[in-house]
Amino acid sequence: MTRATLRPDLAILTMAGFLDARPRVGYFYSGKKTMTSVTESMMNLKVKDFQSLPVVVSENMTVYDAIVHMFLEDVGTLFVVDENTLLQGVLSRKDLLRTSIGSQDLNTIPVHIIMTRMPNIVYCKKTDSLIVAAKKLIERQVDSLPVVHETDKGFEIVGRLTKTNITKAFISLAETHDL
Amino acid sequence: MTRATLRPDLAILTMAGFLDARPRVGYFYSGKKTMTSVTESMMNLKVKDFQSLPVVVSENMTVYDAIVHMFLEDVGTLFVVDENTLLQGVLSRKDLLRTSIGSQDLNTIPVHIIMTRMPNIVYCKKTDSLIVAAKKLIERQVDSLPVVHETDKGFEIVGRLTKTNITKAFISLAETHDL
User: Fold this and answer.
1) Are B35 and A32 inside 8 Å of each other by CB?
2) ipTM of this complex
3) Which superkingdom does the taxonomy of this entry point to (chains A, B) (predicted)?
4) With an 8 Å Cβ cutoff, are B32 and A35 in contact?
């Protein structure tokens, strides 16, 4: 056939929007993605592809120093570790702000007094689906999840997953698909 | 034709995954979404569909009272308005935390001293694309955007768009498409 002949099967694809018919110059892929491409992109997103570096402090750091550390590192959540660098607690900007307007001296109170502890820490693993992790952030009303690696002794912290990471994933979905 | 006859045009659709051929009982829509459904879903998401209610305070409220107000309202950002309820400033949890560890008395310093003012306020409108608003949150490194309605006198605040809203949108995309 000539390049401009409309074959019945291609006609179907043209009607379905897969191909643009350009008389004389043949058929060209129109640039539309296959059916489930964005869907599949979303399903394949993993925590490890979007996580940030974790910022940790020791249990005995003072609340004042933790606040300064948070600003220096420019993060919204600090993870508290023991001497074996295993996860012991989580400190959010909200926890620190609450304490800062209390009557206690920020320079003497250690973070382990105010941090969220196990079993109340919400966490994820690096191979978890980003969708599942996003649901944890919303359902448990936290800004950040420690990304952990489980060992016999406890949780090692390998990352930090925040609503900022999810927002970046949302944008990257749009950019991948040229929205 | 009989219901089980494979018409050439339907055969193409079957190959393309649009239809399942079930001999003797005819063709059924397979449940797969059309090509660009998730893509289109994303493009059609608007700020107004995901925004939260704004929480506003007056310019003369003290920093201490603003922090308490932030906890009572359970938000991460307060918008500061003048006597005509027009947008004058934005107060983030980070702004308040920074001030709380300073040497100033939180009970005497008014929020207008520490707030972010125009032209440094990043905002959006309710008919804006959610993708564009998400990019603003990331590029300008803010947790929240006031959703504004522009008038001759200034900006009225009609909503609040946060990374939490974007995270919910991300989840809803997945849920709409049964991921």
Assistant:
1) yes
2) 0.79
3) Bacteria
4) yes
